[in-house]
User: What shape does this take?
Amino acid sequence: MSVRNSLILVIVLLVSFTLGACGQNPASFAPQATDYSQAAHWLSLPATVKAVDVFYLYPTAWQKTDQSDPNICEIDNSSMLKGSNVAFAKQATAFETVGNIYAPYYRQEDAVYVSKLSSAERDKVVGGIPKLDTFAAFDYYIKHYNNGRPFILAGHSQGSNLLIYLLSEYMKENPQVYDRMIAAYAIGYSVTDAYLAKNPHLKFAEGPDDTGVIISYNTEAPTVSAPGNPVVLPGALAINPITWTREETLAAAEENLGSILLNGDGSIVVDGEGQIVPAMNYADARVDKTKGVVICSTADVEKLSPGNQLVGKGVYHGFDYPFYYYNIRANAQNRVNKYLAGS
Assistant: This one.
């Protein structure tokens, strides 16, 4: 075969392959959601014993160890599996006396990678595979596990970012599901005035008793250094996790129902019998409406928030739940009681 004929044959084959690919269903190339019919893809699948459920999404629980690693982890990433269990212990367990806690594993973004992106680019990343898994997990939970029970949504950081999508899209499209939502604790991310304006079916909590509402705050020291707090967006709203009001009045540490203390690896400090001992008089709280955050002035900044490449000194992001752990538990129970009473 001549060189000319060989080249023609190659071109024909390439064109045929391209046309064949174009004829395939584009959906076949789209990312597929994780299969949540598999129990291995759930961090928590409880025995149903309570009248209320809790659907929990953990925060960023892994970090790339090599630049060549993917920016979105696999569902069975060992680092994420370990980190998500640590997060569950210090966050989701605040609700364990309140409801049956369902918590899916989900593929998530690397925090260092997304910190270098613009806001629009970050939204595109989290709105891709992490959102795909979140919606698939929640839909599976509603159709196969919930059985019509009222529920609480709870999350932190990236988990709360995903709850934001769930609230604005899934709840809008499924109002009969939204009617059963007692409250959404979207802590450690920003719920803004602009977001609520775009989603008039949603409302932010105004007090300790209202239901069907979003509860959100980000905790900081009185002063925060550069690079600041990446999860606090312009127009962010905050509620005081001790008084559960939006007033700027200080709630003293003595009013706090109890914090939990953490070891260096993020695990909870327990006594000799393995029981959590509430830390009393530890964290105060004051809403700062200008900053859109909750200020804690009583914690040790040098020890708890020295700052790093992602967050400035004074950002208590990892302590949004631990500082107010028993207040969250009591408030969730109160809102459950109000909902079940029909208020």
Notes: The beta strands are 42-44, 53-57, 100-104, 151-156, 181-187, 213-215, 219-220, 286-288, 293-295. Residues 3-22 form the longest helix (20 residues).
